[in-house]
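Q: Joint fold for the lines below.
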Amino acid sequence: MSFRLTDAFVAEENARRLEWLTQDYEQLGSRLARRGLDIEALVDRATRFRVAVPSWGLGTGGTRFARFPGEAEPRNVFEKLEDCEAVLKLVRVTPGISLHIPWDRPESPKELRSFADERGLFFDSMNSNTFQDQPGQKLSYKFGSLSHTDAATRAQAIEHNLECLELGEKLGARSHTVWIGDGGNFPGQVHFRDALDRYLGSLRKIYAALPRGFKLFIEHKLYEPAFYSTVLNDWGTSYHCTRELGEKAFSLVDLGHHAPNVNIEMIVARLIQFGKLAGFHFNDSKYGDDDLDSGSVKPFQLFLVFNELVDAELSAVPGFDPSYMLDQSHNVTDPIESLMTSAVEVVRAYVQAHLVDRAALRHYQETNDAMMALQTLKDAFTADVGPILAMARHRAGGAIDPVAMFRASGYREKKATERPAEARRGAGIV
Ligand code: LRH
Ligand code: MN
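A: Joint structure:
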């Protein structure tokens, strides 16, 4: 029998914290009421929030220098789903799982779908992979995939994406995410205009094969693995491509895929205004695509991104329906703890953004009162909404304190007895 967290254990652990949570919750409720805010409505928003977990985030990540495997790592997609169930059990907002193919290719999609279903999980956006060569693969992606100069290599990459679409449909997914590493390391290596034409030509074939009800997400990235030019390098190029493809194509924003200090919240506002925001790969970074835990380095930026999203949500922007996913690499923490705390930080930014006095903000914007406009945002960002988040988790059957409860459960130790360590050293994110 594989170990699973139980409702009884969660209730027992919560019982020891409920009294202080209730006190903090009531105090916060009266403070917010003074600002005309209903704390129960905010708990409701926190409870209905959803952010998907990346299957590749359940194992210990690494860099090109090294990977230091953690204890009881999941060895296959089923064990990844076991760990996703533990995350969901404690934070309650992560039923969606984003798979990566071929890393998570199941022998039986039916078996995998029912395994997930039994654990309250479903499959969110599928991710194709033409940034690595697979054993036995005929043509290499060393010099690109969907934008490769060789038509046969492009066809091979397109074929892989069509296979992912078919699998995604069987698993009940509703979108397909394409990120490619295509680009060059030297000036002159890649013809910028031709490469983009080839990429768009390949995407058209993938777009044409989208199953009913599917959306296509394309993910731009400034650099890495190419270090001079990247074919889909920024949001403008992505927007152009999604416009060219059609109404089912959208631009996905990975927070780590921009140059340092880029105003990402403004890019988000643009894509919302243009009706082309797919959603997000949430993470954080200090320098490059560091894939650090969401809200761990620049929590104010995460808040400002959600300020744009909540402004759009409240002004009912037509077609506004972003997908939220985490995309992180957990090199030095327990992946389950990082995924739980990151999901909590994303919900925190969302709830804080709902504290913004939008009428006042509009007034200060219209009257060019820059100081009060900033203060209006800061009042929301500096509010401690912790009791709202904990109460929402508690009422949904989750943990008042997820990390403390996870550690008290001995989940990792128990999994270590079920998952004998495999000497899987090496480098890279998986
Ligand atoms: C590329 C990326 C992409 C995934 C990969 C795991 O940097 O963000 O979203 O396919 O990480
Ligand atoms: Mn990503």
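Q: Anything notable?
A: The pocket of manganese (II) ion (ligand 2) is lined by residues 179, 219, 254, 281, 327 (CB under 6 Å). DSSP finds 16 helices and eleven strands in the chain.
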